[in-house]
Specification:
glucan endo-1,3-beta-D-glucosidase, lipoprotein, glucan endo-1,3-beta-D-glucosidase activity, five-stranded parallel β-sheet, single chain, cell membrane, hydrolase, four-stranded parallel β-sheet, 31% helix
Length: 500
């Protein structure tokens, strides 16, 4: 997918070339270059630094970007593009020249740690498949000659579609048409301590399943035990598509008698916008998937087959690519617009970590678009009651009375509580009916707490924070029903509070 960088979020975690139970996983993000106003290498590196990025990957070996990355300490993965594969795979000298020009010329100032030879070659460029392992071996030989093979690993990313009969995972095997390529490739990875690179897209698995895969299962959302997928052969329980695909790859390698090669997921993500045939390509789903993926990976959860074994993953992608052809979703996989503004704000809670790709730190708490009205009502009752939110601006005649419905009023109350609690983890959940956004929900003369006084332009995000509130309370319940003496007392108290 064009020029890619891999972005390492969060804390400066370290990972060895071969994943192990003791290694920490990292998260990366792919950056495509099909952007009409592509940022300069200097601007890209500035964004990487601003986001505390430790690892980047290029889909080629762009000289200007490699120079911009010099002396940053950022670990860089570069790539042999598919259109250069045939030449390198047929000539050791061509491979050596490529390494000299794109690796030796930049090391050690630029910290190059891996090389991807081609991308999804078996499925997108099958005529080059017979020379893939030769190209990988020639690149590696050039690194050995330069005494860099210990520092730089070599592999090639594959589409997960090369795995057949992928569920249950224990039955999975690689498309045997490619055994003449996969067997020597796996031997190479094993002998050099490298890893299998795999592109995993639960979005496409979900889309193509004709309803067989639940959306929650694709998005890492919690499932009740009776909804988890169980591998009848191993009795392993799967709570998400991602783990099932990764384990299918492990089992497919086992089918060829390779059991000690780690996996790195080189691409995964979810589009934030789609056309009429892609109703689940939404901001909320993209945020949910990527936020849950980040938490899952950085917790070193591993998979049911290999719990605790790191599965470092690169999110596709850093920027929306407006020049890409195909459906609308193809243009909308990014975390950021080309100007550095976030498409949505990622939120990760756990182990004292909160990550957000927000550059302003101005966030608000709003109702979710699909929230159940009864649950909204109960949460609104709590916020304006035990939550001690000042709900007087919601009274008739006050600035935030309109729109006069539970969604509008709950949004104000939720945000007021969230701001009152200093945006602390768990303060924007309300039993799952609220989410965090970077769009200022203020409207007209109704200025929401936390606003700078004008309506923002960015789009909703999702909070993953657990709720520490309850859904009990009374104020808005009486306010909307308006049939009890208690409601009159509360309204009078609020009105007096507003006047005072």
């Amino acid at each position: 997918m064009a020029l890619l960088l891999l972005l390492f979020f969060m804390l400066p975690l370290s990972i060895s070339a071969s994943a192990s139970a003791s290694a920490d996983a990292f998260i990366g993000v792919n950056i495509g270059s099909d952007v009409s106003d592509m940022p300069s290498p200097t601007a890209i590196v500035a964004l990487l630094k601003a986001q505390s990025i430790q690892h980047v990957r290029l889909y080629d070996a762009d000289r200007a970007l490699l120079l911009a990355l010099a002396k940053t300490g950022i670990r860089v993965t570069i790539s042999v593009p598919n259109d250069q594969l045939l030449g390198i795979g047929q000539s050791n000298a061509t491979a050596a020249n490529w390494v000299s020009r794109n690796v030796i010329a930049h090391v050690p100032a630029t910290n190059i740690t891996a090389i991807c030879v081609g991308s999804e070659v078996l499925t997108t460029l099958p005529n080059a498949a017979p020379i893939l392992v030769s190209a990988i071996s020639f690149i590696h030989s050039a690194l050995v000659a330069a005494n860099m093979d210990g520092q730089i690993k070599v592999s090639s990313p594959h589409s997960s579609s090369i795995i057949l009969d992928s569920f249950p995972p224990s039955q999975a095997f690689f498309n045997r048409t490619w055994n003449p390529v996969m067997i020597p490739l796996l031997k190479f990875l094993q002998s050099t301590g490298s890893y299998l690179m795999l592109n995993v897209y639960p979005y496409y698995d979900y889309q193509q399943s004709n309803g067989a895969i639940p959306l929650d299962y694709a998005l890492f959302r919690p499932l009740p035990p009776n909804k988890e997928a169980v591998d009848a052969n191993t009795l392993l329980h799967y709570t998400n598509v991602f783990d099932a695909v990764v384990d299918a790859a492990y089992f497919a390698m086992s089918d060829l008698n390779f059991t000690n090669i780690p996996i790195v997921v080189t691409e995964s993500g979810w589009p934030s916008k789609g056309d009429s045939s892609e109703p689940d390509a939404t901001i909320d789903n993209a945020n949910t998937y990527n936020s849950n993926l980040i938490r899952h990976v950085l917790n070193n959860t591993g998979t049911p087959k290999h719990p605790g074994i790191a599965v470092s993953t690169y999110i596709y992608e850093l920027y929306n690519e407006d020049l890409r052809s195909g459906p609308v979703s193809e243009k909308n996989w990014g975390l950021f617009y080309a100007n550095g503004e976030p498409v949505y704000t990622l939120h990760l809670t756990g182990a004292g970590i909160i990550f957000a790709n927000d550059t302003t730190n101005q966030t608000f708490c709003v109702t979710k678009s699909n929230a159940d009205p009864k649950m909204l009502q109960a949460a609104l009752d709590w916020a304006c009651g035990p939550g001690k939110v000042d709900c007087s601006p919601l009274l008739q005649g006050q600035p935030c009375y309109e729109p006069d419905n539970v969604v509008g009023h709950a949004t104000y109350a939720f945000n007021a509580y969230y701001q009152k609690m200093a945006k602390s983890p768990g303060s924007c959940d309300f039993k799952g009916v609220a989410s965090i956004t970077t769009t200022d929900p203020s409207h007209g003369s109704c200025i929401f707490p936390g606003s700078h006084g004008k309506k923002g332009t960015r789009t909703n995000g999702t909070s993953l924070a657990p709720s520490n509130s309850t859904s009990s309370g009374c104020l808005s319940q009486y306010y909307y029903n308006g049939e009890s003496f208690t409601s009159l007392v509360i309204l009078v108290v609020l009105l007096l509070g507003a006047v005072m």
